[in-house]
Amino acid sequence: MRVKASILAIALGLAAPALAQPSSQVDNTACKAEEAALERDIALARSKGQMLRRRQLAEALAALQIRCETLTLEQSRAARIEKLEQEIRELRLELDRAEEQLRDLKKGGS
Question: Torsion angle, CA of 54/56/61/64, rounded to 10 degrees?
């Protein structure tokens, strides 16, 4: 029964983020927790001599690690984009202020 429940949990764990939320919103903590659970299940399967189950869990772990690495890269890319967009907004405001000062100087100097 534990074997079926673990396999079902793994399948749901891998499918749920794709169904529930965009992958960039899944946090790194969830990935680490899933990874730790899979590693425990792998160790348990190895200790019981369940080599097929251990291999299936190892494949699920590898897939999870790839997905989590992709998420981390997407999140860091999104953070860099947001930072650059904010920098551009600040530079535009500064440019607008400088252009306003220049217009005022030109008006007063004529």
Answer: -170
